[in-house]
Amino acid sequence: LRMKNTPLHEATVIGDTVGDPFKDTSSVAMNPVIKFTTLFGLLAVEIAVTMQNQGLKMAIGAILFVVALVFVYRSFYSMRIPEEKSLT
């Protein structure tokens, strides 16, 4: 209680006030993504463990990795805000 009304306490209160609404809205939106990623990971591990052909494992892994990179690239660039060209 000795730290009350100090700059550290003020920064903590502001951070908590700003962070709570973001946490409340983003966690709901991220929940399906987290569930899908976890399910996909569990299925991929099961396939990798049960497959016997090492070359086929590597090929499937490489293909899935490239597909994942494409989705990450597309999601990153689709979220970018385009620059407005100045009229000067």
Description:
The chain has 88 residues and is an all-alpha fold. The chain has one domain (7-79). The chain has 2 helices and no strands. The longest helix is centred in the N-terminal third of the chain and has 44 residues, at 7-50. It starts with 6 loop residues before the first helix and ends in a 9-residue tail after the last helix. The mean pLDDT is 79.
List keywords for this structure.
88 residues; mainly alpha; 0% strand
Give the helices and strands, then pairings.
Layout: H1 7-50, H2 54-79
Structural domain tally: 1
Structural class: mainly alpha
Unreliable runs, pLDDT <50, ≥5 residues? Answer: none
Q: Summarize the helix and strand pattern as letters.
A: HH
Q: How helix-rich are the residues, as a percent range?
A: over 70%
Distance between the termini: 55 Å
Q: What Rg is obtained from the alpha carbons, in whole angstroms? A: 22 Å
DSSP, total strands: 0
Indicate the overall shape. flat
Sheet-strand content, in percent, reads: under 5%
Major sheet details: none
The residue-averaged pLDDT reads: 79
Short précis:
The chain is mostly helical and 88 residues long.
